[in-house]
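thought: user wants a sequence for this fold. calling inverse folding tool.
action: design(structure=
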C-alpha cells in the first residue's frame, strides 16, 4: 500500500509518500519546503504569511514527491487536520480534498501530535509491533516542539490520555525566544544546540549563569517555560555590552538554557513513567532532534528504569514532515473516508 501524507500545520509544507511492504515501511519521497528563512525576521511563525506560502508550495511539493518517489498512484491520503494554525491547516485540507476528488482515493484525517508520536515506529516491523504491544504499552510520550510540550500516556495506538502540558511557552518556543534574545537565528533550537556543550566537550563556564528549572519538583505533569525566557533576558541585560557579545558568554548561556530545558523534561518524563508503570518511553517532536536530550534521556532510562524501552524517531523525521502524516494514516486506515465534507481543520484538536 502506498500512502501520501500532507502536512501544513505550521511553517513547513511537507508532502511525502511511504509504502508498506511485508509489514515494513519504506519512505519513497519526503519533500519539505521550509519557510524558516521567511519567518526569521519575526522570530516566530507569522500565520497569514505561512498560509500564503503553503498555498504556493503545495503543488510544487506534491509534484516533487511523485517524481522523487517515481510514483504515479497512491492508495490513501493522510492530511493533518489539527492541532495547528487554522488557516495553514485549511490549505493542506483543501489540497487533499481536491486530490481525493481527482483520484477517487479516501482521506484519513490525522492528528499532528499523534503523528509525531507514531514516527518513532517508522523503522519497526508493523506486525511485530502489534504482536509485541503487550511489552510496549503503556508508554509515556513526551512531545516537544515549537507549539507543544505534552506528556501523554499511550495505552495503545489510538488510545491516549493527556497527563500534563505547558502552561505557557512550549519547549521549542523557549529555545526560539531565548535564541532571539542572544541574537541567534530562527529556529533557535538548532542554533542553541550547536553552540551549547555536548556531553563530550569540556563545559564553558561564565560566572553566575544559573537558570531556574521551572516546576521541576511540582507534583503535577505540567510545564512552564516563560520564566526561563525572562531569566535569560534579565541575565543578558545585567551584563555589559562587551561581555554579552563574547562567544564565551553566548556559549555558556546556550549550554545552560539547553540543560535547564532538558533537566525539566527528563525529570517529569521519568516520574510519569514510574507512576504509570510505563513499559516504554517515546520522545517526539522537533525538539526531540536535540542530541543532548536524546543522549541524556537514553542514559537516564538505562540507569533508573532498566528494562523500559526507549523510542525516538530518526533525527531527520523529528521536525514536521509529510512522512509522519502518511504513517499515521496507515495506522488509522479504519478512519479513511470519502465523505470529504467531514474533513475539517481543528486548531485545538485533542488526542
Ligand atoms: O515539530 P516542529 O518541527 O514544529 C512544530 O510542530 O512546532 O518543531 C519545531 C521546533 C522549533 O521550536 C525548533 O527550535 C525546535 O523544534 N528544534 C530544536 C532542535 N531542532 C529543532 N530544539 C532543540 N534542539 C534542536 N536540535
Ligand atoms: Zn510538529
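)
observation: tool returned 351 residues.
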Amino acid at each position: 500500500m502506498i500512502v501520501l501524507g500532507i502536512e501544513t500545520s505550521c511553517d513547513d509544507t511537507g508532502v511525502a509518500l511511504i509504502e508498506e511492504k511485508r509489514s515494513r515501511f519504506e519512505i519513497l519521497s519526503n519533500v519539505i519546503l521550509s519557510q524558516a528563512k521567511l519567518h526569521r525576521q519575526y522570530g516566530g511563525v507569522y500565520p497569514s504569511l505561512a498560509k500564503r506560502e503553503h498555498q504556493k508550495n503545495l503543488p510544487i511539493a506534491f509534484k516533487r514527491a511523485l517524481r522523487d518517489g517515481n510514483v504515479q498512484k497512491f492508495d490513501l491520503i493522510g492530511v493533518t487536520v489539527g492541532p495547528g494554525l487554522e488557516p495553514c491547516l485549511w490549505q493542506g485540507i483543501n489540497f487533499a480534498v481536491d486530490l481525493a476528488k481527482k483520484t477517487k482515493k479516501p482521506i484519513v484525517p490525522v492528528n499532528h501530535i499523534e503523528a509525531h508520536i507514531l514516527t518513532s515506529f517508522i523503522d519497526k516491523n508493523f506486525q511485530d509491533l502489534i504482536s509485541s504491544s503487550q511489552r510496549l504499552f503503556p508508554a509515556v510520550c513526551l512531545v516537544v516542539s515549537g507549539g507543544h510540550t505534552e506528556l501523554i500516556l499511550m495505552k495503545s495506538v489510538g488510545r491516549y490520555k493527556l497527563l500534563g502540558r505547558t502552561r505557557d511557552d512550549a519547549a521549542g518556543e523557549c529555545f526560539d525566544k531565548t535564541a532571539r534574545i542572544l541574537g541567534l537565528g530562527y529556529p533557535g533550537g538548532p542554533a542553541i544546540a550547536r553552540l551549547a556543550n555536548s556531553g563530550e566537550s569540556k563545559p564553558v563556564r561564565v560566572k553566575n549563569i544559573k537558570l531556574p528549572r521551572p516546576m521541576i519538583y511540582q507534583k503535577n505533569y505540567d510545564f512552564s517555560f516563560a520564566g526561563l525566557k525572562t531569566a535569560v533576558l534579565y541575565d543578558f541585560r545585567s551584563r555589559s555590552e562587551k561581555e554579552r557579545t563574547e562567544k564565551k558568554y553566548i556559549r555558556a548561556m546556550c549550554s545552560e538554557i539547553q540543560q535547564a530545558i532538558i533537566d525539566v523534561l527528563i525529570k517529569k518524563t521519568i516520574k510519569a513513567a514510574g507512576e504509570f508503570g510505563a513499559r516504554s518511553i517515546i520522545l517526539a517532536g522537533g525538539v526531540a532532534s536535540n542530541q543532548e536530550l536524546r543522549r541524556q534521556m537514553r542514559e537516564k532510562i538505562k540507569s533508573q528504569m532498566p528494562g523500559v524501552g526507549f523510542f525516538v524517531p530518526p533525527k531527520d523525521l523529528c521536525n514536521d514532515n509529510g512522512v509522519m502524516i502518511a504513517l499515521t494514516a496507515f495506522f488509522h486506515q479504519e478512519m479513511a473516508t470519502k465523505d470529504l465534507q467531514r474533513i475539517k481543520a481543528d486548531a485545538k484538536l485533542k488526542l
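thought: summarizing for user.
answer: Here is the designed sequence. The chain has a mean pLDDT of 94.
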